[in-house]
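>> received
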Amino acid sequence: MRNVTVFALGAAALAFTISAAAQKPVVYPAKGQSAQQQKKDDGACYSWAKSNTGIDPAVVAQTPPPPSGPAVGGGERLKGAARGAIVGEVAGGHGGEGAAAGALVGGARARRNQAAQQQQAQDQKSQAMDTFHRAYGACMEGRGYTVK
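>> returned
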């Protein structure tokens, strides 16, 4: 149980770090562009980056995360219970106890699988936004802005 907690905390810290790195770049006018010109260039580069990468930040931001409720649906608990029952019967006629222990192990496996799926979805989302922001930044640099 402790390993699951440590894993979940590590995954949360990694997701926070990745999401912080995927923030929209900050753009400074390097050639005296007015605020109105910067707004116009920002819109043009947003559209250009969207069309050239195929990534729409609004859609990516609205993508629902994978389910985070009880880990069900993969059959891990049932498989664990079945294995535990078999081992319990073979080891000494305690199939019920083995099934209970196997179900606990299967539940832990289900939680690990669910956490891995959530992390993979977050990674894909962050990579997509990073790709978009690099394209956007390149466009703005090409128009004479400093991008950080």
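>> The mean pLDDT is 76.
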